[in-house]
Structure prediction request, 756 residues.
Amino acid sequence: MSGTDGIEIRKGISREPADIVCADGAASSERQRGRSGNGRVTISDIALEARVSKTAVSFAFNMPGRLSKQTAEHILAVARRMGYTPNPIARSLNTRRTNAIGLIVPQDIPEVMRNPFFAELMRGVGEVCKCGGFSLMLIPPMRGSLVDATYAALVDGCLVIGLEYDDPVVKALTQRRIPFVMVDTDAPAHVASVNVDDCAGACMAMKHLLDLGHRRISIISMDSHVACFEEYHGILRQRMQGYAAALAEHGLSLRSPGICVLECEPSVEGGRHVFEQLRALSPMPTAAAVLGDAMAWGLIEAARSHGVAVPKDLAVVGFDDLPASHLMQPALTTVRQPAVEKGRRAAELFLELLHSDGAAVPKHIMLPVELVVRESSV
Amino acid sequence: MSGTDGIEIRKGISREPADIVCADGAASSERQRGRSGNGRVTISDIALEARVSKTAVSFAFNMPGRLSKQTAEHILAVARRMGYTPNPIARSLNTRRTNAIGLIVPQDIPEVMRNPFFAELMRGVGEVCKCGGFSLMLIPPMRGSLVDATYAALVDGCLVIGLEYDDPVVKALTQRRIPFVMVDTDAPAHVASVNVDDCAGACMAMKHLLDLGHRRISIISMDSHVACFEEYHGILRQRMQGYAAALAEHGLSLRSPGICVLECEPSVEGGRHVFEQLRALSPMPTAAAVLGDAMAWGLIEAARSHGVAVPKDLAVVGFDDLPASHLMQPALTTVRQPAVEKGRRAAELFLELLHSDGAAVPKHIMLPVELVVRESSV
DNA sequence: CTGTTAGCGCTTTCAA
DNA sequence: TTGAAAGCGCTAACAG
Prediction:
């Protein structure tokens, strides 16, 4: 359908054929005084060329006030001419600062980014990055090992998403005395954490379905890697407790006939896929309580394409309230959690830790949730 | 609506009150042989404690094969006991590798993450990160300066999104000889780049609208920071050319009466907001060609809430084809671009550069687009 | 198989 | 105002 066919082509645009890649003086002086090994200009090169000490060069960049205006400008001029810029790694080794905050996520990046919830979380973290001048490092497992990734990460500290406190990653962070904040998990008192009221949220969702008269309800959870939901931990456990509490009010439990727990990847595709399992149930459930909006979207789409009408044949209530959830067809009934704020608060907490140098009292933040009833539940 | 009210609370869960934070031997030996300054265990501490050289310790971690099994295990044991882990910054200073790939984005993170297109792009980049064992660093402007952020970034190289070749950031990258790939921009022949056929895509979209009979068409572009669309560059210019080409076939131009160009932030909010401007036009346009799906979603939502029916009163065609675009109400007609692949190809290109050490011939990849007609256009 | 030695490129006392 | 020198914590020839 397109003009070009996905083939690699040379565009040959080259608007600036004569573009100077290295600054003028560099090439010549490079040879003059054999530069340090691999060709990159270092602080010594500048010092030599400018006939000052390395100290002076360093000052010129970091505390120009401590140099006479003349020297400072001279040094900077030489640096510019030679195309010099301080090596950030060497600098970090001294300052012990990287100006990056890490987001440790338990899955690979493609999986993470398939779940729009993370984009929301990152928006919040990003607000703090913006104020504090930080970059944001996504730290997924490295060759399968999240600990290895953690060991290798060049960051000032981390936000740890959805890991349990006894996870090796947390141990590694603690050992290296890297400040961190835990998000979406049960954290012990001495560790900073941010959560939302998952239990209450799930309870509201289930109660809503029950009040609507539903009694055959599927709970769509996320891949947990445990044998059964009784072994859930962290937010999954919290939410199951919420569901259970609501069911209990109607004399039901998670093990009652009609109630069942299905799992899928937390993404649209995951939801689409889990519908197969759901419709294979007989009798088919009349409602689904889904642990993430993206999954709910996928579920609804799959339902529709299989002729199962939402909400008539299947009521669906999600969890998150992503920005797009009310643009859907039908608009999604869901439990709103302040995902952006979650990220922001976590990052703020992290900054506190970072600046207090371990002296800060760890805080535990719990954010509220609310049920948003729209069209996908009747 | 929630049980707890967003107040900071102490959860006091502390399942492991006796949790040992530092490994056993650490605290004692710490005092024994005054550890290097600030308390963190270094390679020297381990060397001393294990009665071997620093080299041996280094080998134990990086090339255990070069040590006798005994020594290696002894060293590792001591390290474990003292809670030692190599400092990744010091290591990077030597190896010149950070195992991180940077994504240089021209806006702040919150703005970036509000545009779901980036999540798609990152999915693709993430696939490569996964294979190569990289982390992904989001590099937004630092205190307003993207160049400063670039200088400070601890990465092996970068993917540069939407910047022109003559941007100072690109100059900085070139100067420091940091490998990079440009995405979504006109890149000169000697620089690796990945693009989609923006021009063709826009042309198809406009032609579609024109064929449907529309003659009063608003083009919704993204914030450009230039005075008028004639000054657009990069993908915006490409797309405008596409629109213009289609219009030309019907004897129209971008300056014809009935045609107008509006700008907004590339997000749902942006689209919602720009609808105000669109409806202020008189006569109101009967169609909108939008440069991003997220904006189109917002536009459609705002239209609906103002009683303007889509597609009856306003036909809308987007650009991107995000995963959620066909879940919308109405499902969005749009130009599909392979965003995930774009990210993947860019990252792959980057890896080639990185491994070839500058010897690689820069490639230019152009990916195809296609028009997906759904319900938002009639 | 193991250790000595010299860096990596920069910051930062301390003294001049 | 400037510079000498001692690191930051680790890697990697090169010897032995």
User: Anything to note?
Assistant: The longest strand of chain A covers residues 217-222. Residues 1-38 of chain A have pLDDT under 50 and may be disordered. Chain A touches chain B through 109 residues (CB under 8 Å). Residues 52-56, 59, 66-68, 71, 90, 92-96 of chain A lie near DNA strand D (CB under 10 Å from a C1').
